[in-house]
Amino acid sequence: MRKAFAEALERAADGRELSREDLQVLLGADEQESASLFELADEVRSRFVGEDVHLRGLIEFSNYCAGNCLYCGLRKNNRRLVRYRMSPAEIRESARRAAGLGCRTIVLQSGEDGFYTAEVLADLISRLKEELDVAITLSIGDRTWAEYALLKEAGADRYLLKYETSDPCLFSALRPGTTLEERLKRIAWLKELGYQVGSGNIVGLPGQSLETLVGDILLLRGMGVEMAGIGPFIPGDRTPLGRFPPGTLEQVLKTLALARLVLPRAHLPATTATATLDARSRARALKCGANVIMPNMTPLPYRGDYRIYPGKDGLGEMPEESYAKAVRTVKSAGRRVARDFGHGYGNL
Ligand code: SAH
Ligand code: SF4
Q: In this prediction, what percent of the chain has a pLDDT beyond 70?
């Protein structure tokens, strides 16, 4: 083990603030060093958020998108994708099913789809909150302050808005027409409005360096978010980045472990993108700092068309199978399924 690595790890174990250099050294861990990093992240996870794993049921209710992100299969220029929208009644039915299975949180995700006005979504959210004893997380991208405010008032508890990369040039190159500054401004709005906020980044994006990833972790720490989704870049054949290599599992797990060290109380999912790299990687992520799984609750006819990236885990599964698989993963990692909502612990 390198001396600098051992020293940085010790500082992390003592709960001291890690410098940019420390993060760089830790992120550059070799196989043996990684094992120590993962062990520490697992210990910190156990100490701060315990053995519970929260199962948040994900409903991908529309794959229409006005955005054109270079990495994403839902981008508007992908004309080969069959588009779908679930009706509010179908979404409620899926949410009932997810709650019936045991999900205490429903995550509503979609492309940037203005068809669902804030009023329509607010009505849906308030009905869901009336009918079911669940927390609601939204992951529907960029909206206005007034829309976020209306959705919060209607009962939404959390919002996921990833910064994707901390490099402003890379951000604008990959998300045409948008800037990192605006994205961060929206994340600040969501906090002001009282949402529990989740963010996160993609690991292994073309054009991303080790320094960028260090910047990603520093940004995450600076934002003090309550959740962070960290997953690998998966190249999509129907996107301009189809020929680039995917992010590696090792780099994702190292980034996840560092996220746990800098945000000890955060909720960190073992993401679907991570599971796409290797079926067993969800269980591995649970041992590198993760404490959340988001089983897919999207009904089968639509699931295959929510092709953010190809080869997504659980494509042919019914919601019941996806939920049961998540429970098995939790148990195989020696952990237990949380019974509470798993609201934010706060890192501010
Ligand atoms: N439209 C919303 C939410 C849906 S996209 C938004 O963009 O915020 C949800 C997440 O999918 C994004 O935050 C991004 O991190 C991830 N994603 C998209 N394409 C990806 C790819 N090719 N590889 C890995 N993650 C990807
Ligand atoms: Fe649309 Fe989100 Fe995909 Fe970008 S990442 S194309 S905004 S669904």
A: 99
For the chain, first and last CA: distance in Å? 33
Query: Measuring from atom 2 of ligand 2, which residue has the nearest CA?
Result: 111
Chain segment 201-258, per-residue pLDDT in tens: 999 999 999 999 999 999 999 998 999 999 999 999 999 999 999 999 999 999 999 9
Q: Which domain holds residue 242?
A: 19-334
Tell me whether residue 192 is in a domain.
yes
pLDDT digits (tens, 9 = 90+) for 19-37: 999 999 999 999 999 999 9
Q: How confident is the model at residue 345 (pLDDT cuts 50, 70, 90)?
A: low
In the structure, which protein residues have their CB atom closer than 6 angstroms to any atom of ligand 1? 71-72, 109, 111-112, 139, 141, 161-162, 164, 202, 231, 233-234, 236, 273, 308-309
5 belongs to a structural domain: no
Nearest CA to ligand 1 atom 1: 111
- The count of structural domains within the chain is 1
CA-nearest residue for atom 19, ligand 1, is: 72
Q: List Cα–Cα distances, 86 to 61, 92, 142, 239, in angstroms.
A: 5, 10, 20, 24
Q: Ligand 2 centre and the CA of 75: distance in Å?
A: 6
Whether residue 273 has its Cβ less than 6 Å from ligand 2:
no
Helix intervals (H) in the chain: 3-13, 20-27, 31-49, 88-101, 118-131, 145-154, 168-174, 180-192, 210-223, 249-262, 272-277, 281-286, 300-303, 319-332
Q: Taking residues 32-60, report their average pLDDT.
A: 97
Q: Please work out whether the CB of residue 141 comes within 6 Å of at least one atom of ligand 2.
A: yes
Q: What is the CATH number of the domain that holds 79?
A: 3.20.20.70
- In a domain, residue 229? The reply is yes
Cα 64 to averaged position of ligand 1 atoms, centre (Å): 13
Q: In angstroms, what is the span from residue 140 Cα to ligand 2's centroid?
A: 9
